[in-house]
Specification:
By secondary structure, this protein is mainly α. The chain is built from 5 helices and no strands.
Length: about 120
């Protein structure tokens, strides 16, 4: 596999590795969701893992700006606050009636949360 990857064009190799990374992330996400279904305490661990991921993302992005580029940035907190506020606003105002109407479908909560996240990213 390594020799085949070396002979590929750089963009094909990067696209292949990116697809493998996304597949791995979805596999881990599915495993955590599956474990939460039969182990209720896993919901707590899922929340902690999500908060750790958010803080790691913020720390790495701030390190790129401050550490490598040498610039001082206060925009990270503003963009995070804008995205969080907009996502919460969408979820409570627009998506909550659907969640109350279709209460027996736990997958709908995940779908609507992801839609709110994507719209909040675009709004920020």
């Amino acid at each position: 596999m390594a020799t085949v990857a070396k002979r590929m064009a750089w963009w094909k190799r990067d696209l292949l590795f990116f697809a493998a990374l996304i597949a791995g992330i979805f596999a881990v996400w599915w495993l955590l969701e599956y474990m939460a279904a039969w182990w209720p305490a896993m919901n707590y661990f899922n929340r902690i893992i999500i908060l750790i991921g958010i803080n790691i993302t913020l720390a790495v992005s701030l390190n790129i700006i401050s550490g490598h580029a040498g610039q001082f940035s206060l925009g990270h907190a503003g963009f995070m606050a804008t995205g969080a506020y907009f996502s919460a606003y969408l979820t409570v105002t627009f998506f909550d009636p659907y969640l109350r109407r279709f209460e027996g479908t736990p997958w709908l909560h995940g779908v609507l949360s992801n839609v709110a996240l994507i719209i909040a990213i675009l709004a920020a």
